[in-house]
Amino acid sequence: MRRAPWLLIVLFSACAGGSQFACRKDVITGNEQCQPVSRSPTEAAVGAGAAAASWAVVGCTLNGCPPPDRCNPQTKLCETTSCQSDRDCGAGFHCDASSSHCH
Question: Are 50 and 5 in the same domain?
Answer without folding.
Answer: yes
